[in-house]
Amino acid sequence: MTNKKDNIASSTSDPVDSPPPYTPLPSQSREVVPNESTRLYPDVPKNSYSTIPTPTYNPPNPPQQSSVTAYYQPDTVVLSPAVSIFDLRAQPAVTCCPYCNQIVLSKTSFKIGSANLLSSLGLFIIGVTMWGCCLIPLCITDLKDCIHSCPSCGRNMARYSRIEGRVYSYGE
């Protein structure tokens, strides 16, 4: 029986084979192997650089003076058909002024009306009086009455009441 340590020691004492020396192949030649650059440019000598043509920009000829003149037309505003005074609501509308008899787009403004006053009174009755919170409905535009006036003559044409949903005319 042999000892494992003896086998390792004996194998290391043998001379190690070194790689063979490098020797060039005798049939190597110095010819250039065709590659992509030699196939594309066969007349270019080896190891020389060619200049790449610089791209040039040729601007178009200046425009000729034309005799065409552009005419601009002002914007056209198309208004909806005029509505009756009694069909007005909270938005401006095209209507006929009863005072100057012109078709105009009414100018709107908002005034405190009965809807504001009743909601403030209701908050006061249920006890929301801390820091004047019962007065908040007086600032809400959606509760105010809408007053329609004529931009041409400046007179009030109608008042739209929010609480009743009716239009009151300021007629003659």
Commentary on this structure:
There is one protein chain. With 172 residues, the chain is α+β, with helices and mostly antiparallel strands. It has a domain of 85 residues. It contains 3 helices and 6 strands; from the N terminus they run ααβββαβββ. The strands form 2 sheets. It has a 4-stranded antiparallel sheet with strand order 3-4-5-6, with no helix packed on it. The protein has a two-stranded antiparallel ribbon with strand order 1-2. β4 and β5 form a beta hairpin. It is elongated and about 120 Å long.
The span between the termini is 138 Å
**Element order: H for helix, E for strand:** HHEEEHEEE
Mean pLDDT: 78
Unreliable spans: none
- Helix-and-strand structural type: alpha+beta
* Radius of gyration from the alpha-carbon trace, in angstroms: 50 Å
The major β-sheet equals: 4 strands, antiparallel
Major sheet: arrangement of strands: 3-4-5-6
Output the number of helix runs. Answer: 3
- Give helix % range: 10-25%
Tell the overall outline: elongated
Give the percentage of residues in beta strands: 5-15%
Beta-strand segment tally: 6
Keywords: Membrane, Metal-binding, Transmembrane, Transmembrane helix, Zinc
Region (Disordered): 1-46
Family: Belongs to the CDIP1/LITAF family.
Pfam family, one: zf-LITAF-like
Pick out its properties:
single chain, 172 residues, alpha+beta, two-stranded antiparallel sheet, 3 helices, elongated
